[in-house]
């Protein structure tokens, strides 16, 4: 089994995530269309979606490539360590992406005016 045999699985997995990709594309489209009114928020959304999409692609490739690497190398410990480090980095990248989205949603809001006195 070679890395070329991994490609169909990676493509299939990315297609299974199509609803998520649609949401991300819509989010980027909305952010870009509102860039002039809300540049910080739009930048955070585009950056967050880029990070999350990159992690989704790399994570899918790593998931499908790991078994191939284990078969083709003699050091299962090395592959295990590599996967552990990858997961730590991937979780940090995902956390940063979500933090950026939360900042875009809840940051830079003007306070609501007080209710009228009755």
In short:
The protein has 118 residues and is mainly alpha-helical. It has 4 helices and no strands.
How do the helices and strands line up, and which of them pair or pack?
Elements: H1 7-16, H2 18-33, H3 39-72, H4 76-106
Keywords, separated by commas or semicolons:
about 120 residues; 4 helices; elongated; mainly alpha; single chain
Could you describe the 3D structure shown?
It is a single chain. The protein contains four helices and no strands. It has 118 residues and is an all-alpha fold. The chain has one domain. α1 runs antiparallel to α3 (39-72), α2 (18-33) packs antiparallel against α3 and α3 packs antiparallel against α4. The longest helix has 34 residues, at 39-72.
Number of domains: 1
For the residues shown, what is the average pLDDT? 89
Helix content: over 70%
Secondary-structure class: mainly alpha
| Main sheet makeup | none
Low-pLDDT ranges: none
* Shape annotation: elongated
Spell the H/E element sequence: HHHH
Number of strands: 0
**What share of the residues does DSSP label as strand, in percent?**
under 5%
């Amino acid at each position: 089994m070679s890395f070329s045999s991994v490609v169909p699985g990676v493509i299939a997995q990315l297609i299974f995530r199509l609803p998520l990709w649609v949401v991300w594309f819509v989010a980027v489209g909305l952010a870009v269309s509102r860039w002039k009114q809300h540049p910080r928020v739009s930048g955070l959304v585009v950056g967050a979606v880029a990070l999350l999409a990159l992690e989704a692609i790399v994570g899918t490739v790593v998931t499908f490539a790991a078994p191939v690497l284990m078969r083709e190398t003699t050091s299962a410990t090395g592959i295990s360590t590599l996967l552990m480090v990858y997961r730590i980095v991937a979780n940090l990248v995902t956390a940063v992406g979500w933090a950026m989205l939360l900042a875009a949603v809840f940051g830079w809001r003007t306070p609501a005016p007080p209710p009228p006195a009755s």
